[in-house]
Specification:
nine-stranded mixed beta sheet; alpha+beta; EC 3.3.2.10; 23 strands
C-alpha cells in the first residue's frame, strides 16, 4: 500500500484509488451551479482492511451517496482549512485488493464554489448569452464534487454535460453523440488518458470554433473568433511538431485552445485537449502566443507525467518552461531565442524572490505545504527556479546526452505521478549506464539537497545576450535626462524585446522623471498598446516615477484584464502610490475577477479579513 504523500488532501487514497470518473452534470445558469451525479470507480488497495472511503470536498451540497447502487452510510465532517470538509463513506465489508467499488454521488455546487466563474451576458463581448468556466488547479476540483483531489491520483473520465449553450471539456468530443433535449443539449466527451482531478475542466457559453491546424481548433466568443484564428493559425502545427521531436509523439489526439473572457486568472491552463487561455494572448501582433508553447509542453510535463503533490510543483512547471524554450528555439532558429526567453524569466524570478525575501520558504524549489493553501505558495519560483535546475542538468551532461534522457524520463513516468527524489533516482539511474561513465564525476557533484531546499536565487548561468544587448543599450540611453526618444528606437523590435527594455528601465536605481515616463508611454505607443504585457510593464515604470496622470490608466487596465500575472503586481503598485484608488478600483471590479484572483488581491491589499466578515 503506497503512502499518502500529499498534505493537501484529506482522502485516504492509500486505501482506495479512483480509476474512472463519470460526470453527469447539468449546467444551471439560472442558479449558477452544476447539479447532477458523479460516479467514482475506486480500486481497493488493501485486502478488506479499509472500511471507509474518504473523499475531499469543499462547500459541495451532497444529497445522497450510493455504494455499488445501494444506499450508503456517509457523513460530511467539519471543515478544516485549507483542505475543506472530508466526506466519509462507510464500506462495512471492505473490499478485496484490486476489487473496484462504485460510489455514486448526487450533488450540486454552491455559491461558495471556488472552481467556477459565472458571467452574465453583459460581461461577455457580444452580450448574447451567459458564460461559465472552471479552474480546478490547485485544490478546487473538490468544490465541484467530492473526489480524491490530489495530483497523486489519476483517473480516466466520461463527461455527460447538459447545457443550453455550447460545452467544452477536458476530453475528446464523442462523435455524433450530442443530443437535443428541447432547449438544452447533452454533450459527451471522453478522456481515455488518466488525469489528476485538477485537470477536470468545463466551459459553456456562446462559443464558436475555427480550425488553426491539422490537429487543432480555436474556440472563443463569435466576436473574437476571426482575430483569435489569425493569431494562432500557422503556429499550432509548428509547435506540435517541434515538441514531438524533443520528447515523443503527442498522445492526446487533438490539441485545441479555448480563449476565455478577460477575467480568466492565468495566462493559460493546460487542461487536456482544450488549453484554456487568457485573451491577453490575442494582441494582434502574434507576440504573446508563447503561452501556447508553454501549455502545449504541459501535454508531456504535468499532464502525462505529474508531480505527486504541490510540494513538488517544479516538476510540472520547471520542465514545462524548459520544453517551452526548446520549442521556441526550434521554431525561431537557435539557442539565442532560448536564452532570450530565459533572461526574461530570470528577471521575473528576481522580482518574485525580492517580493518574498530571499530567505522565505516559498523561494525553495520544494515547499512544505503542511497547513498551506497551494494558491498562497503559487509564484514564478517553481517555474523559473525549476527551469534553471533542469537547464543546469542539460548543460552538465551535454545536450546530446540530455536529449536521450528526455524521452526516457517521460516514457518511464507516463500516466504516473512522482516526487523530486524519484526524479533524482531516475536521472542517476539513466546516467549510471556504462556509456556515460565519463560523466561520473560531474554527476556526483550535483547538490540535490541544495537545489531542492535552498532559499533564494539559484546559481546564475552565463546567458547568450545577443538578442537582449540592443534592449540594454537603449535602456542605458534613458538614464540621461537629455535623451530624446523616437518611435524608430523600437519600431523593428519584437514585443518581447520591448519588454526586456522596459524591465531594464524598471531596474534603474533612480526612477525616470515624470516627464520621461510620460514621453516613454507616448513616443513608443505603450500607453495605447493593445499588448497587456507591454502596457503593464509601462505602468509599473510610471507608478515608480510617481506619474499621477497614469494612475487612472492603471485602474482602467485592472478593469479589463483578470490575469493574476498583471492584476496582483499592478494592485500592489497602485496601493503604494494611491491606496484610495486601489481600493476603489478593486471594489468596482471585484465581481469581474475570478474567485481565486479575488481572494489573492484581497490578501495583497490587506482587506481579506474584512471580506470574510462581510
Amino acid at each position: 500500500m503506497a503512502p499518502i504523500r500529499d498534505p493537501n488532501t484529506l482522502s485516504n487514497y492509500d486505501a482506495w484509488r479512483t480509476r474512472h470518473t463519470t460526470a453527469n452534470l447539468k449546467i444551471d445558469f439560472t442558479d449558477k451551479c452544476l447539479r447532477g451525479s458523479v460516479i467514482l470507480e475506486l480500486e481497493s488497495q488493501t485486502d478488506k482492511a479499509s472500511k471507509e472511503i474518504i473523499l475531499d470536498s469543499s462547500y459541495v451540497a451532497v444529497s445522497s451517496i450510493k455504494l455499488n447502487s445501494a444506499p450508503s452510510t456517509w457523513e460530511t465532517k467539519a471543515r478544516t482549512e485549507p483542505n475543506g470538509s472530508p466526506v466519509h463513506i462507510a464500506v462495512p465489508e471492505g473490499a478485496a485488493k484490486g476489487e473496484v467499488v462504485k460510489v455514486e454521488i448526487e450533488l450540486a455546487t454552491t455559491d461558495k464554489c471556488t472552481a467556477l466563474q459565472w458571467l452574465t451576458p453583459a460581461q461577455t463581448s457580444n452580450k448574447a448569452a451567459p458564460f461559465m468556466f472552471s479552474q480546478c488547479q490547485a485544490i478546487h476540483a473538490r468544490s465541484l464534487f467530492p473526489c480524491q483531489d490530489t495530483p497523486d491520483v489519476k483517473s480516466t473520465y466520461d463527461f455527460n454535460i447538459t447545457s443550453p449553450y455550447v460545452v467544452v471539456a477536458s476530453g475528446v468530443p464523442v462523435p455524433n453523440e450530442t443530443k437535443d433535449l428541447g432547449e438544452e443539449k447533452l454533450y459527451k466527451f471522453q478522456q481515455k488518458v488518466p488525469i489528476p482531478s485538477y485537470l477536470f475542466a468545463l466551459s459553456s457559453g456562446d462559443i464558436a470554433s475555427a480550425p488553426v491546424g491539422k490537429r487543432s481548433c480555436v474556440c472563443t466568443g463569435p466576436n473574437e473568433l476571426k482575430e483569435s484564428q489569425w493569431e494562432l493559425e500557422g503556429d499550432m502545427d509548428k509547435f506540435l511538431e517541434a515538441a514531438e521531436k524533443i520528447v515523443f509523439p503527442y498522445r492526446w489526439g487533438e490539441y485545441n485552445v479555448l480563449v476565455l473572457p478577460p477575467s480568466f486568472p492565468y495566462g493559460g491552463m493546460e487542461n487536456p485537449i482544450f488549453t484554456f487561455a487568457t485573451p491577453t494572448i490575442i494582441s494582434g501582433d502574434k507576440q504573446n502566443i508563447d503561452v501556447i508553447a508553454h501549455e502545449l509542453a504541459h501535454s508531456w510535463s504535468g499532464n502525462l507525467v505529474t508531480s505527486c503533490s504541490w510540494e513538488h510543483f517544479w516538476l510540472n512547471e520547471g520542465w514545462t518552461m524548459y520544453l517551452e524554450r526548446r520549442i521556441l528555439a526550434s521554431i525561431h532558429g537557435g539557442d539565442a531565442h532560448f536564452d532570450f526567453s530565459a533572461i526574461r524569466g530570470w528577471k521575473a524570478l528576481e522580482e518574485a524572490i525580492k517580493e518574498y525575501g530571499e530567505d522565505h520558504e516559498f523561494t525553495k524549489l520544494c515547499i512544505s505545504h503542511k497547513g498551506i493553501d497551494p494558491d498562497d505558495a503559487f509564484s514564478t519560483v517553481p517555474y523559473e527556479k525549476g527551469f534553471h535546475f533542469v537547464w543546469s542538468l542539460d548543460r552538465l551532461v551535454g545536450r546530446e546526452n540530455f536529449d536521450k534522457f528526455i524521452p526516457h524520463y517521460f516514457g518511464k513516468w507516463s500516466n504516473k505521478s512522482l516526487d523530486s527524489y524519484e526524479f533524482k533516482d531516475t536521472f542517476l539511474e539513466f546516467f549510471s549506464a556504462p556509456e556515460y561513465s565519463d560523466l561520473k564525476d560531474k554527476i556526483a557533484s550535483i547538490d540535490w539537497e541544495g537545489r531542492f531546499h535552498s532559499t533564494g536565487l539559484p546559481p546564475k548561468p552565463e546567458f547568450d545576450t545577443s538578442l537582449a544587448d540592443v534592449c540594454y543599450e537603449l535602456a542605458e540611453k534613458w538614464k540621461s535626462k537629455d535623451f530624446t526618444p523616437s518611435p524608430s528606437d523600437v519600431s523593428s523590435w519584437t514585443g518581447n524585446q520591448v519588454l526586456v527594455f522596459l524591465n531594464a528601465v524598471q531596474d534603474f536605481e533612480e526612477p525616470l522623471t515624470v516627464e520621461q515616463s510620460q514621453a516613454l508611454g507616448k513616443v513608443y505607443g505603450l500607453s495605447e498598446s493593445k499588448n497587456a504585457e507591454l502596457k503593464a510593464a509601462y505602468y509599473h515604470i510610471a507608478m515608480r516615477s510617481k506619474d499621477a496622470s497614469a494612475y487612472q490608466g492603471v485602474a482602467d487596465l485592472l478593469g479589463e484584464v483578470g490575469r493574476m500575472k498583471f492584476v496582483r503586481p499592478l494592485y500592489r503598485g497602485l496601493n503604494k502610490v494611491d491606496r484610495e484608488l486601489a481600493l476603489k478600483t478593486f471594489e468596482k471590479n471585484r465581481e469581474f475577477y475570478h474567485p481565486i484572483c479575488r481572494q489573492m488581491v484581497e490578501k495583497d491589499l490587506g482587506v481579506a479579513e474584512a471580506a470574510k466578515s462581510s
